[in-house]
Each structure stands twice: as structure tokens, then as C-alpha cells.
Amino acid sequence: MAGGSGIDVLGQFELRPVLGGLGEALRFSQSPLYMLLAVCLVLAFLYFGMRPAAVVPGRFQAAAEVCYEFIRNMAVDTIGPEGAAFFPFIFTLFFFILAGNYIGLLPFSFTFTSHIAVTLGLALMVFVLTVIVSLKVQGFRFFAHFMPAGASMALAPLLIPIEILSFLSRPVSLSIRLFANMVAGHVMFDIFASFVIMLAGFGVVGDVFAIGPIAINMALVALELLVGVLQAYVFAILTCIYLREAVAH
Amino acid sequence: MGEESDESFAKRLEAAERRSGLNEKDEKATAAERDEQSLPALALRAGTEMISALIVGVAIGWGLDRWFHTRAIFLIFFALLGGSAGVLNVWRLVKPPQA
């Protein structure tokens, strides 16, 4: 990734075909491969966690149940009683992003949430869902939200486009937030890791000083573990907030 | 980097867990909306909101210009609107509760 002279911090985000000839033919890159891996991991976690189905859960089952209840409470508390209907969607979204963020922290792996195409795809899914739910629940009253209450009619031609743009910016900000956090974290890893290699070129003194960047990188792993769960949480809670506005009468 | 952002993230996570893990405190909507209260996090979020509205405005303006072959009229107009929408987004983020 990082040579002695040039630092190539963005090389880690490049997509390459995987799985040999078959992957080449299908244009199958690391990104979908790691998505499949994330999905399999989450499903395996839930399947093997819940297989005992004991009344008194073991550790594994307790972990699966805590995850379930955490998202369920979040959905129902934020959206209201209608939130139960959206719980499976939010659960999937949260754990897909979380698994993606965490798998990306493993050495030699790939972070699919570091691609704007992926995060924008997820955000647009949320956006389209909220628009459909809004139109279904509120009907044409949905469009009344674009005119702020109490503003004078003379300002409407200016205010309505601003409100519409503000509404349209939601999926963009949702996706940029996740994407930027992931890219920034992984770029920092790469920069500090390349410092180690550069310092190694300075003999014994460099070897001693190289401990610094290694220590920073270890701290960064801890930070990234937090960022990974926080960004998944923020994505899920914002989805809940948007859906709450959609189902509000 | 390091310690201070660690701390702020820990604080945010703690606040998030308190709200979502234990639901006896029935603070629903407004609390969830302002879940990122630490200053760097808020600044980052405000920046994202502002930039994203501007991106949407510029994209729409550029697209309309391309469509109607009117160079830069729509781009200028929608960039201004996008900037305003960004400020509106930030205001929504920081406005006092129940204003």
C-alpha cells in the first residue's frame, strides 16, 4: 500500500476483480464479496445465537437478543407504535453497516462502506422509502410541509425551493457522513502505518521512533471501533427520525 | 487526534446508549434529533448538512443548464438556493427545542 517514498493512501479503496476468472467475467470486486460476507456473518450470528431458543439464554443467545431489543426499542421509541413495521428494515440497515465497518477494520480486508456509491445507495433506499410512506400516510398533505407555517405568501416562491432542496439534501448528507468517516479513518491508518515504514529506513533511531506511529495506530483502532458503531447508529437513528416524520399525521 | 476525540465519542456513545438502551426516560423525538451534542461532532454534522444541500443545489442547477442549454443561469440560482437550504439545515440542527 505505502511505499518508502510515496504514500498511496487511497490505493486501499480501489476495486479489483476477485475470485479469479469467474470474478473477472462477472466484474465481481471486493465490495460485493465483503457485502456477502457481512450478510452471512450477521445471519450466522442470529441463526446460531437463537438456535438454542432457551428460556434462560446463554451468552450467545443473550447477545443476539440484546441486539434485537436495542434496535426494536430504538425503532418503536423514535417512530412510535408504527415503528414496529419498520423494525426489520432498520435492523438490517444497522447490522449491515456495522458489519461492513467492522469487517473493514480487519487487516487485508475491504471496507465497502467507504464507497460513496454504496452509502448513497443505502441512503437513497431510505429516502425513497420515506417518500413512499409519506405519500401513503399523508397523501397530498405531504406537499404542504414544503411551505413553512406562518410565512407570508409573497415569500413562497423563494421558501418552497429552499425547503425542497433541504429535503433533497437528506440522502446526500446521510451518505456523505458515513462515507467520509470511513474514508478518513482508513486514510489515517494508512498514513501512520506508512510513517512506520519510512522511519524504518533511518536505522536504529528510526526503529525506536517508529513505536510512536504504531502506538497511534493502535489508539486509532479503538477509535475506529467506536466510529464504526456510532456511524451505524447515526444512520439507523436518522432513518427512524425520517420515518417518524413520514408517519406523523 | 487520539484522546480528546476518544473522549467525545465515548460521551456520545454513552448518551446514545442511555437514551436507547434504557427507555424509561421517555424522551422521544427531539432528544434523538440532537443526539450528537459534543462540539466537534456537531461541527462535523453541521458541515455535512451545509455541504450536502449545496451539492444538491449545484447538481440540479448544472443539470437544468445542460438540459436547457442556458449556461450558468440555473447553476447560479440553484447554488444560491442550495446554500440557503444548507443554512436552513444547520438552523434545524442547532435551533433551541420547540422554537
UniProtKB/TrEMBL annotation, chain A:
<keyword id="KW-0406">Ion transport</keyword>
<comment type="similarity">
    <text>Belongs to the ATPase A chain family.</text>
</comment>
<comment type="function">
    <text>Key component of the proton channel; it plays a direct role in the translocation of protons across the membrane.</text>
</comment>
<keyword id="KW-1133">Transmembrane helix</keyword>
<feature type="transmembrane region" description="Helical">
    <location>
        <begin position="178"/>
        <end position="202"/>
    </location>
</feature>
<feature type="transmembrane region" description="Helical">
    <location>
        <begin position="143"/>
        <end position="166"/>
    </location>
</feature>
<keyword id="KW-0378">Hydrolase</keyword>
<keyword id="KW-0138">CF(0)</keyword>
<dbReference type="InterPro" id="IPR000568">
    <property type="entry name" value="ATP_synth_F0_asu"/>
</dbReference>
<dbReference type="GO" id="GO:0005886">
    <property type="term" value="C:plasma membrane"/>
</dbReference>
<feature type="transmembrane region" description="Helical">
    <location>
        <begin position="116"/>
        <end position="137"/>
    </location>
</feature>
<keyword id="KW-0066">ATP synthesis</keyword>
<feature type="transmembrane region" description="Helical">
    <location>
        <begin position="214"/>
        <end position="243"/>
    </location>
</feature>
<dbReference type="GO" id="GO:0045259">
    <property type="term" value="C:proton-transporting ATP synthase complex"/>
</dbReference>
<keyword id="KW-0375">Hydrogen ion transport</keyword>
<protein>
    <recommendedName>
        <fullName>ATP synthase subunit a</fullName>
    </recommendedName>
</protein>
<keyword id="KW-0813">Transport</keyword>
<feature type="transmembrane region" description="Helical">
    <location>
        <begin position="84"/>
        <end position="104"/>
    </location>
</feature>
<keyword id="KW-0472">Membrane</keyword>
<dbReference type="InterPro" id="IPR035908">
    <property type="entry name" value="F0_ATP_A_sf"/>
</dbReference>
<feature type="transmembrane region" description="Helical">
    <location>
        <begin position="33"/>
        <end position="50"/>
    </location>
</feature>
<keyword id="KW-0812">Transmembrane</keyword>
Automatic annotation (TrEMBL), chain B:
<dbReference type="GO" id="GO:1902600">
    <property type="term" value="P:proton transmembrane transport"/>
</dbReference>
<keyword id="KW-0813">Transport</keyword>
<keyword id="KW-1133">Transmembrane helix</keyword>
<dbReference type="GO" id="GO:0016787">
    <property type="term" value="F:hydrolase activity"/>
</dbReference>
<keyword id="KW-0375">Hydrogen ion transport</keyword>
<keyword id="KW-0472">Membrane</keyword>
<feature type="region of interest" description="Disordered">
    <location>
        <begin position="1"/>
        <end position="35"/>
    </location>
</feature>
<dbReference type="GO" id="GO:0045259">
    <property type="term" value="C:proton-transporting ATP synthase complex"/>
</dbReference>
<feature type="compositionally biased region" description="Basic and acidic residues">
    <location>
        <begin position="8"/>
        <end position="35"/>
    </location>
</feature>
<protein>
    <recommendedName>
        <fullName>ATP synthase protein I</fullName>
    </recommendedName>
</protein>
<dbReference type="InterPro" id="IPR016989">
    <property type="entry name" value="Atp1_alphaprobac"/>
</dbReference>
<dbReference type="Pfam" id="PF09527">
    <property type="entry name" value="ATPase_gene1"/>
</dbReference>
<feature type="transmembrane region" description="Helical">
    <location>
        <begin position="42"/>
        <end position="64"/>
    </location>
</feature>
<keyword id="KW-0406">Ion transport</keyword>
<keyword id="KW-0378">Hydrolase</keyword>
<feature type="transmembrane region" description="Helical">
    <location>
        <begin position="70"/>
        <end position="91"/>
    </location>
</feature>
<comment type="function">
    <text>A possible function for this protein is to guide the assembly of the membrane sector of the ATPase enzyme complex.</text>
</comment>
<keyword id="KW-0812">Transmembrane</keyword>
<dbReference type="InterPro" id="IPR032820">
    <property type="entry name" value="ATPase_put"/>
</dbReference>
<comment type="similarity">
    <text>Belongs to the bacterial AtpI family.</text>
</comment>
